[in-house]
Write a structure and sequence with these properties.
Pathway: Porphyrin-containing compound metabolism; protoporphyrin-IX biosynthesis; coproporphyrinogen-III from 5-aminolevulinate: step 1/4. This is Delta-aminolevulinic acid dehydratase. It is an enzyme of class 4 (lyase). This protein has 329 residues and is an alpha/beta fold. It has 11 helices and 10 strands. It has a domain of 222 residues: Alpha-Beta Barrel (TIM Barrel). It starts with 16 loop residues before the first helix and ends with a helix. The relative contact order is 0.14. The protein binds ligand PBG. Ligand PBG binds next to loops.
Length: 329
């Protein structure tokens, strides 16, 4: 008897780069990458964010230039976060027609027209002096329904300034419905909503709070963002957002929540986005800086993992860099 050798040899399809490329089940496409960008009021030069090497708070001018470059590189969209010069209890700069994000949206929509998808993060934490995502009751809790009225007004201001998509990230109950009604009431039926539906109370947002200058002055966000221990609850949040009129739904963070991305992808028929957040970015950049991981390979692998879990769209601070790398081969 001759020795029996395997007939099935999965290694046959791994033999060369060409074979591996041919049979790859998951592909990264620049068109599915969304670049989050920060724009700060009242600065003359872009300011680096120390905990996010390579990320800056932009001036209006540097934002226009960087947005242009990202679009040239082929990213699918950009999402704006504003850092206002003045903060107050109700976050009044958030829906001011001359607020920093509205000014940026007007300039970018004039520059870029329909060449890219212009999105605006819709929340109050960057705009309130206390750093919470809504307005407070006298006892210091976030007042859900009073906050909805603020979100409705911000949505209309962002739409009027040229946002194609608004992205509510405050995790108030009923926020998508309130925003949809306000947009429709103001004639913005075509402005879409990308809902941060399953957003966890995550320590991975740490570096973002430097970038957006929005760390809460007291307490944390666990009374409105989800508990990392829960999974089924994400499906409930997603379903509620869809009933209220969300056009796309998001899971956030991405890497530590790939099970949630998969469950959401399997449960809905709308596009699913996942947000690779500041802490995911910072950890890889920090390890790479020390030479502990191969930066380029780890970045791509982290994104492939998120796509493989089921995300159609990925928000990532590497969007422009990766898009450039993918298109230049
Ligand atoms: C809230 C918001 C946050 C992020 C996006 N939108 C911060 C928070 O909820 O505390 C985090 C993004 C990141 O960490 O990259 N407006």
């Amino acid at each position: 008897m001759t020795a029996r050798f395997p007939v099935a040899r999965p290694r046959r399809l791994r033999r060369s780069a060409a074979l591996r490329r041919l049979v790859a089940e998951t592909r990264l496409d620049p068109a599915g990458l969304i670049l989050p960008m920060f724009v700060k009021e009242g600065i003359a030069e872009p300011q680096p964010v120390p905990s996010m090497p390579g990320v800056v708070q932009h001036t209006l001018d540097s934002l226009r230039k960087a947005a242009h470059e990202a679009v040239e590189a082929g990213v699918g969209g950009i999402v704006l976060f504003g850092v206002p010069a003045h903060k107050d209890g109700t976050g009044s700069a958030a829906d001011d027609p001359d607020g920093i994000v509205q000014r940026a949206l007007r300039e970018l929509s004039r520059d870029l027209g329909e060449d890219t998808v212009l999105m605006a993060d819709l929340c109050l934490d960057e705009y309130t002096d206390h750093g919470h995502c809504g307005i407070l009751t006298p006892s210091g809790e976030v007042d859900n329904d009073a906050t909805l009225e603020r979100y409705a007004s911000i949505a209309v201001a962002q739409a009027a300034a040229g946002a194609h998509v608004v992205a509510p990230s405050g995790m108030m109950d009923g926020q998508v419905g309130a925003i949809r009604a306000a947009l429709d009431g103001a004639g913005y039926h075509q402005v879409a909503i990308m809902a941060y539906s399953a957003k966890y109370a995550s320590a991975y947002y740490g570096p973002f709070r430097d970038a957006a200058e929005c760390a809460p002055r007291f307490g944390d966000r666990s009374a409105y963002q989800q508990d990392p221990a829960n999974a089924a609850e994400s499906l409930r949040e997603v379903m509620l957002d869809l009933e209220e009129g969300a056009d796309m739904v998001m899971v956030k963070p991405a890497g530590p929540y790939l099970d949630i991305v998969r469950r959401v992808r399997d449960a809905v028929t709308v596009p699913v986005a996942a947000y690779q957040v500041s802490g995911e970015y910072a950890m890889i950049e920090a390890a790479a800086e020390r030479g502990w991981v191969d930066r380029e390979r780890v970045i791509i692998e982290s994104l492939i993992g998120i796509r493989r879990a089921g995300a159609d769209l990925i928000l990532t601070y590497w969007a422009a860099e990766v898009a450039r790398r993918l298109t230049s081969g």
